[in-house]
Amino acid sequence: MTQTTKAPAGFDPALRNLVIVVVLGAIMTILDTTITSVAVNTLGSEFHTSLTAVQWVLTGYTLALSASIPLSGWAVVRFGPKTMWLVSLLLFITGSVLCGLAWNIGSLIVFRLVQGFGAGMILPIGQTMLARAAGPARMGRVMSAVAVPAMLAPVLGPTVGGLILAHLSWRWMFFINVPLCAIAVIAAVRLLPGDPARDRGAKLDIVGSLLLSPGLGALVYGASEAGGGTSPTDIRVLGALSAGVVLVGCYVVHALRRGGAALVDVRLLRNRNFAAVNVMMFLYIGALSGLTALLPLSFQTVHGDTPLRSGALVASLGVGAIVTTVITGRLSDTYSPRLFILTGLPVALLGIVGLTRVEPGSGDLLIVVLLFVIGLGHGMVMPAAMGVGYRTLRHSEIPSATTATNVGIRAGSSFGVAALLVLVQRDIEHRVPGVDAFSRAPRADGVSEALAHSFTHTYWWALAIGVAALLSALMLPSRARLDSGG
Question: With a threshold of 0.90, does the pTM exceed it?
Fold first, then answer.
């Protein structure tokens, strides 16, 4: 049995208010995933500590975020979406204030864990509220509203971080969250309806939480270490990845036995539409996240650009995405979402093909145009993909489905970044052994060209992952089958 209730064609005031609340809450939590990426050297100098320790400011946030996502589905059922939305926002604000007040690297890492734990539940809870309120007829449009901050924030994060570091203390990378999130809290209190009847008997799947959250954390940690320069054969990387695979595997077995009472109901993957879109998103987000991690690095190591300038170049991807996102969100409610996904993916892949031809002497205009093209494709894929996954699910399955989708996206992003960074490091070691590839110091003759070839060669791997995503998208059902519940 699937959702069959027809929603109104337009946005009623209640749904419009809900979209405003979710966008306000989501944008800063997503931005914080990348805003500190340009502050590694600054934090190292401020706290007189090593690069390895500072990396935990980034990794700790991601780990906490990944660990808290699986709890969001149960929390919504047990306590209600409005209550958990406010709790998550307040937890994020508290973590942000504490981060800004941190007195040493250890305290900053701990406070980033608090911040990340709150951030991890915000987007899944917001998507759950939107999916329940919109219904199938308006799913594409409401998801396109969420897609805008989801696409812009990671791209703009390094730019905003660079601006803050150029003119203010690093502490303002965290303090900036406070007024914006305060507005989000006020909006939620005033605009969100009260929680529906709560299932006070809903019990937390304790065994599942002890398997899935640590398992995801171990996988993200292993991937982050490998992507951060540690050898993939290092005992820490192998140990973390192995532990993660075992724990997640045990969770799957546990969840199949427990059924709908599991932390995340893996039986949802039996739904062809839900499974196909999540496999496609895992691969596609992996390719795009890895690419957006490589691009600023390429601009700084090959062209000698500053973090601010490199972030501004990557921002053209977000601009392209905005152009098509709003249009796609509206049209995917009328036409087949599959059509937009199978159109947008080739457009994005075409832009990646162009990046494989970029040389050290290529002008900024060419790079901006190519990233704009990737953004155009991205803006077609994301709203359609985020909406289509819920089209054939029951109302009661939505909390677990949003949790599963966000787990897949987070895992895909982590592995995409790690895989492409490892690949580019290996290629650089092969082409220019002994060269400090991540320094912006002047290069000897031929070194910049060799580094450029390492990056463009790695873009081919991003393209290959994107092609795999395209093949997965071919499994998505047509509009007629979606409407019939297939």
Answer: no
